[in-house]
Specification:
alpha/beta, four-stranded mixed β-sheet, binds zinc ion
Length: 367
């Protein structure tokens, strides 16, 4: 089941739809159908698509500004709650982040102003703030953009206002502390907003505040992880004391090895010590129940395991470990020799230690 579908590519950025957005669109059109038949369904769908076109333009405001500072955006995803442009990185310079964060709301403000001018030129009343159904299409669209603008400027992650606040704080206290303060403030706002929404029984708002709360902690987490790991390379992150298992060993041997210590993933090697695969605890349990203890390790192991170089940087190593969906990856030097294991448990421990000592005094020397 695919959740995300690419519908196009604009200047190097993939435009993607999340499946829930498509379901939302269908649900919206069905609502229109129930009110006014087929014409109502079309009108509802066109309306929602117009709103999301405005959101997409907003995201491309961020994306174009980011490109000016050399930050690429591989994709932008449309969700029922809005759009998310996934920037490759946050610029180190707070002033650049500030401008990137402001560029989206600037586009939304421009759309609202243009629509306002069009409405006034045609002699209609814009009815600022009026979202009641039955208002003319352009007036409704203008007001949606006004609310989008206000909503986005709330100073909480993942809204743009949160990023503006973070950039302002970061220019004084650094990225990590600035993010921490901005995230806490965002969570406080989300909790307050959630409480208001619960007491007034606005269920959709409760959900939105919940996402804001999660967004704040995810942002803080990502920034702290990157800061804690910044400048590290694999040779400083890997486990160097570990045991391997020969490819011809039996699963009974592997069980003995597993139970004799803390290690749960074993690099599988051939006679020359070259890496052939990885035997995880799950592999072992599955192999045992399928073929019994006399089967060999080669039948149960994960093959074609990606290996990492000891000189690979922290973020790349983390990305590769995550995308492999394995608990560990072998570290192999240029001559093909196995010199370490990169495990998620070890990285977690390392990050905890690094965060406790932000001066980096516990960093292991590069080998
Ligand atoms: Zn934005």
């Amino acid at each position: 089941m695919k959740w995300v579908y690419t519908i196009g590519r604009i200047r190097g950025t993939d435009v993607k739809l999340h499946l829930t957005f498509v379901l939302f669109l269908v649900w919206w059109a069905v609502g229109g159908y129930q009110e006014a038949g087929a014409a109502g369904a079309v009108a509802a769908a066109v309306w929602l698509l117009a709103v999301f076109a405005c959101i997409l333009l907003h995201e491309f405001g961020h994306i174009s500004m980011a490109r000016r500072f050399g930050v690429r955006t591989p994709d932008v995803i449309l969700l029922p709650i809005g759009g998310v442009a996934r920037l490759e990185r946050i610029p180190e310079e707070p002033r650049q982040e500030l401008l990137i964060a402001l560029a989206g709301p600037a586009v939304t403000a421009a759309i609202a102003l243009i629509l306002y001018a069009l409405i006034r030129l045609s002699g209609d009343d814009a009815g600022l703030g009026d979202l009641s159904p039955g208002r003319p299409f352009l007036a409704l669209l203008m007001n949606v953009n006004v609310y989008l603008l206000l909503f986005n400027l709330i100073p909480a992650f993942p809204m743009d206002g949160g990023r503006v606040l973070r950039a302002l704080l970061a220019s004084r206290m650094g990225l990590v502390r600035g993010t921490r303060v901005a995230a806490s403030l965002g969570q406080m706002l989300a909790a307050l907003g959630g409480l208001c929404a619960v007491t007034t029984e606005r269920h959709l708002a409760v959900l939105v505040e919940f996402f804001v709360f999660l967004g704040a902690s995810a942002e803080a987490e990502a920034v702290e992880t990157r800061a804690a790991g910044g400048g590290l390379q694999v040779s400083q992150m890997m486990v160097t004391e570990f045991r391997t298992i020969p490819i011809y060993a039996t699963l009974a041997d592997a069980v003995e090895l597993l139970l004799s210590g803390e290690q749960r993933e074993f690099p599988v090697v051939d006679n020359q010590g070259r890496i052939e695969g990885l035997l995880t605890r799950d592999n072992l349990i599955r192999g045992l129940s399928r073929s019994g203890p006399s089967a060999t390790v080669s039948d149960a192991m994960t093959q074609n395991v990606p290996v990492v170089a000891p000189t690979l940087g922290f973020q790349d190593a983390l990305d590769r470990l995550r995308s492999s969906r394995l608990p560990a990856l072998p570290v192999v030097d240029p001559s093909g020799g196995l010199i370490g294991l990169l495990t998620s448990d070890n990285i977690t421990d390392l990050l905890l230690v690094q965060r406790a000592r932000p001066d980096g005094a516990v960093r292991r020397p590069r080998s």
